[in-house]
Amino acid sequence: MKILVIGSGGREHAFVWKLAQSKRVSKIFCAPGNPGIGQIALNISIQASQLDQLVRFAKKEKIDLIIVGPEVSLISGIVDLFKKNHLNIFGPTEKAARIEGSKVFAKKLMLKYGIPTAKFAIFDDYGYAKTFLKTQKYPLVMKADGQCLGKGVMVCQDEKSAQRFLKLLMIDKTFGQSGNKIIIEECLTGQEVSFMVVTDGTNFVSLLPSQDHKPVFDGDRGPNTGGMGAYAPVPFIDKKLISRIEKEIIGPTISAMAKEGCLYKGILYPGLILTKDGPKVLEYNCRFGDPETQPLMMMLKTDLIDIFEAVLKNKVKSLRIKWFAGSAVCVVLTSKGYPGNYEKGKEIVGLTNLDKKNDLQVFHAGTKIDNGKIVSSGGRVLGITGRDKNLRLVIKKVYKTIGKKGVHFSGMQYRKDIGKKGLKKKLWN
After folding, report:
1. N or C, where is the chain less crowded by C-beta within 10 Å?
2. Are strands 373-376 and 367-370 parallel, antiparallel or unpaired?
3. Which of 318, 345, 365 is the last residue of a domain?
């Protein structure tokens, strides 16, 4: 099979790395890819947003399967366009991808079908929202309706910070049209987890639960990012809790989307919070998470092609996914200044020491080649990902490879506590 992976980050590098292990795959292209991906696949200089060019390329090369990484492409209708051109593509349609593209759509869906989530109010008028904030108890959560790369949400501790963020969203248009509508909701407390499932619109199979780390600093402090690291599986999510999540959230969501005329096929990924009243949905994603994909691919024993084909051929009911024993962790190395204005062009040292070890991989996220050297080019630069027989061992293994004796670059920043929540003996409730 000839495969085209669309995207350029760590998630896409993890896809390519896993696909390259399949006996069924003969050639892998990635558009636009990155230097790490270029070591195991052929990078194509077409951006993920250049949909018509991607279609022409896929037709010309007779691509057998297209895999889409970024949510922006899915929300823009890439699946509809490729299907119209009789190309096999994995992911939800534009209509179904609204579950991530519009938080208002998702909230209304959950309210209508009784899917557990935070109590909320929706506003499209700045004046009404401003007045509403004066009557609320704090903390509360404010979210932009549309896509903001994980940054259009804020936990507001008091009215002053809430009014400031409201102005940024609706008046200053910091996130453009995404702030035309906003959601103000109660602030839920508990452990947050990523729960991804693969579905053909009728049946689903759950992947290993994982846990992302959004805030930039240790102890979940500082502004939100695209994700500073992740690990899988999550020790405090047992079979009983998985069954409850599937029964109360996953099944009802897939059923609700079908009833609304938005048959959902692909990866459905609700971000959950485990409250004292049970699991509740914080938001939905219409694709694999990043950086959660990195440890998931490291743990996956089943051929990734088998998973994609089960969805495309409506055979998820008979899909059985096998996983390696143990745990996997991904620690993201970021540029100085991220998630704000960050440095670029810093030479990355120590990459060749790790690339050939199967239980330890460097997934490129924001890199480029400059004068023959690999340098930083994004906020999130690399994802150091490892697997071992337990979480404590793999945390130690991954962190041991970061720094002057391993992988490093000038101004490098990273969290020192990725995975440590999973070491606590106290369960979620």
Report:
1. C
2. antiparallel
3. 318
